[in-house]
Design brief:
The chain is built from eleven helices and twelve strands. By secondary structure, it is an alpha/beta fold. A hairpin with a 4-residue loop joins strand 1 and strand 2.
Length: 333
């Protein structure tokens, strides 16, 4: 069975997506290998849905987001957005599609040009795509600042005059400028204080309802992903190991890696916390330049057997809508 949704409500459909970065050595820069940052993932996102994407640092989450938006040209696979395959678009065709897809970057300090005012930063997409000019841009920027709960009079200020949370709101306003239908949120809260994180997430949820936005929400924080996502995908070393609805994934994880991740999430109830079983993973994450044979997770897996080294487990549907890449997932049912 395919892990694609059969209905017509799918906005984004990704099939067997791969993004390999070549490794060059020597004087003549001969290619000696490749970093398999994303190595064959298939999923879809429905209109108005938030798909959470979690996994530890370096597993390929941000690369997945950037490859979907064609900021990196994929090594293989297809990305269908509104039934148009983005992989084959070039030049003006790709530029037109970019209006419908935007990105909120991880670091609000690095993603805003310090030499530009807020009007320049938020208004730049409008100018680049010839959506508005002159006074129209100023009016639209002020409206966008109001949408993200910033004072419109801040429009003439520079990024250094704002806090991290305010800068991230400016990033959100810039992403909304062209009225996109799909936004990749690349760890938009990881660089912010905990007290500000909830405000930014609540803002994203409000904007989603207001404009029927579709999100790919990339994050480390499993409790925040649980709060904002409709479905959650778990990534390990360039591949998806589990994909399910939020409640099912958190209540009944079927992959050993997901179980280990969730066992590390703090619970505010000390009695429940004392009762639960902690899964401690041993060893380090292998290099994406030379991943293990068979199952990527087998070198750290507590239930790995000989078959795990011989062949790569299929990403299969175990229960309706719940996909797992593990030979022994049924043990946890």
């Amino acid at each position: 069975m395919s892990n694609q949704t059969p209905n017509d409500n799918v906005l984004l459909r990704v099939e067997d997506l791969k993004m390999h970065f070549p490794i060059y050595r020597g004087v003549i820069q001969r290619q000696v290998g490749a970093v398999r940052a994303v190595d064959g993932i298939t999923f879809d996102i429905k209109r108005g849905e938030t798909l959470g994407l979690v996994g530890e640092s370096g597993c390929g989450k941000s690369t997945t987001g950037r490859t979907i938006l064609q900021l990196y040209r994929p090594t293989a696979g297809s990305v269908h957005f509104d039934d148009v395959d983005l992989v084959h678009l070039r030049g003006e065709e790709m530029r037109r599609m970019r209006r419908k897809m935007q990105m909120i970057f991880q670091d609000p300090y690095a993603s805003l040009n310090p030499r530009m005012t807020v009007t320049d930063i938020v208004g730049e997409p409008l100018m680049v795509h010839s959506v508005a000019t002159g006074k129209e841009i100023q009016d639209r920027v002020q409206h966008l600042l109001e949408l993200v709960n910033l004072n419109p009079s801040f429009a003439s200020r520079y990024p250094h005059e704002f806090s991290g949370g305010q800068r991230q709101r400016i990033g959100v306003a810039r992403a909304l400028a062209l009225q996109p239908s799909f936004i990749v949120c690349d760890e938009p809260i990881s660089a912010l204080d905990v007290s500000i994180q909830a405000q930014v997430v609540n803002l994203l949820e409000d904007l989603q309802q207001q404009f029927n936005l579709t999100y790919l929400f990339i994050a480390h924080d499993l409790s925040m992903v649980k709060h904002i996502s409709d479905r959650v995908a778990v990534m390990y070393l360039g591949v998806f190991v589990e994909l399910a609805s939020r409640d099912e994934l958190y209540e009944k994880p079927l992959h050993p890696y997901t179980r280990a991740l969730l066992s590390a999430v703090p619970i505010p109830d000390p009695i429940a916390d004392a009762k639960r079983e902690r899964v401690i993973l041993t060893g380090d994450v292998p290099s994406p330049a030379s991943p293990p044979s068979g199952c990527r997770f087998r070198t750290r897996c507590p239930i790995a057997e000989a078959v795990c080294a011989e062949s790569r487990p299929e990403f299969r549907e175990i229960t309706p809508g719940h996909f797992v890449a593990c030979f022994f997932a049924e043990r946890f049912l």
